[in-house]
Amino acid sequence: MPLLRLTRAAAVSVVMVAAAFAVPLLADGEPLEDGSLPCHPTGAQSRYLVLFAEGTSPEGASHEMTLACGSTVAYYGEIAVGVATSGDPRFAERVGRDRAFSTEAVEAAAGRHGRQAAQVTTGGGDTAEDRSGEQWDMGLIRADAAHAVTAGSRDVLVGVLDSGIDVTHPDLAHAVDASRSAGCVSGKADQSPAAWAPTTSVHGTHVAGIIAAADDGKGITGVAPGVRLASVKVVDDDGTVRPESVVCGLMWAAANGMAVANNSYFVDPWPLTCDRGEERVVFEAVRRAADYATGKGVLTVAAASNESLDLASPSGQTAGPDGQWRKLDSSCRVLPAGLRGVVAVSAVGPDRVKAGYSAYGLGVIDVTAPGGEPSTGRCVLSTVPGGYAQVCGTSMAAPHVSGVAALLASTHPGASPQKLMRLLTSQAESIACPADYDLDGAGGQDAYCSGYAPFNSFYGHGMVDALAAVTP
Description:
25% of the residues lie in helices and 16% in strands. It is α/β, with parallel strands linked by helices. α8 (203-212) packs parallel to α11 (394-411) and α9 (243-255) runs parallel beside α10 (279-295).
């Protein structure tokens, strides 16, 4: 069950860099004339996320990162978050481990490089064949009925923060707005087509099809086939979703007038990120970016994850990418779904019951949507390079919600993210907790649902409703 996990970038002053390198280095370990320690690059470059105090200027941020033996990649002054690279393993110590963090450095130290090295796979099927009859998921949220009213407005732009969209797919070629697409893998937006195109993953193309595949009698049809999409690549070729990429993606969405940003992943390097210790750097940076995007009119929608966890009561211990055990507590959340103002989405199968893999949590899950259930062999059909494929996961549930949100943005022009969220939740169809959640028939409960029909830990406010979104 795959779940993938512009502001102006500040350039380092040439004069500043030259001055920095002009300072003579003393003996190893001895301080320089300005009191700092000499740089000792190992040759292996790592990328770092760096927190700054509110109001820090681009020049001030770049100067500090340079003195810490780093090179500035980007600086988002609106939220005082920077991205730097450094070959000196002491970069984080120089800046302060409460302010700098590198997913790459942590994974390299543990001998781990990404979640997986997935190869490009292509789908089958004739793209001229009508396969809408296989889209059980669209019927579940009444998207097919909604299309009789409207397919959505071209004025609405939905950001697909993912692994890239195949713009050559006939179901998606009409939808992707290249002028609003960018690659954010490095932590700095790059608008070249190669930067936002898919390389090793079909995930982003699959998500995009669920949102806006063309309603043309061929292939499949998305929830909101009349809206535009922006391909915002935040997933690295090794399958990792690094926090600096997510910060870049959310800031790009905010700068480019996106009404909705879909996030079908959790932020690495942990399934749950805690607001403490070095993890707080990741937590705080992503929180700042998400809050900023909301303030700029972007509704952020995110998958709850496929970890089968109760997100409202995280407990116990889990191993991090470095192999060290971490104790979970109430400060630990899946990012970005667990943040305030983000629409967190759980997944159901064709039977409208929470999928076994789907995370849940009272007060965390806002709504639910079709994600499919592998045990029944019924996943969600959507676009992939070369055709179509069925995939299961909360990654598939989230774009159904983003599609409905796009329809709401079409029928309520200028609506704030808060209003769109209220409409999503108030129009959702309530689903009561199942009387028996014994998925394997072993006689036990595989998870416990709490709450009541209008709002509970499995389904939040219920199933999103596309027809309600377009009905006056």
